[in-house]
Amino acid sequence: MATKGIAHAVPWWVKWIAVPVALLVVFGGVLLSVAGFVIGLVFKALLLVAIIAGLVFVVRKFTSSSRDRR
Q1: pTM for the whole thing?
Q2: What angle do CA 58, 64, 65 make, to 5 degrees?
């Protein structure tokens, strides 16, 4: 009940601007760390997929060329 009274007592700009900005300032480092970790993980996964695809391409190219010689 008291929380509802506090939320209704503050102006709109405090609820929609000041509080989110304060949360970003306090937890911004954590958010950036998590985002950086996720982006790094996705990049490594894409790099792994590209390397595997390149290896498959090279192996298929060499195996098909050796079949043509026979």
Answers
A1: 0.60
A2: 90
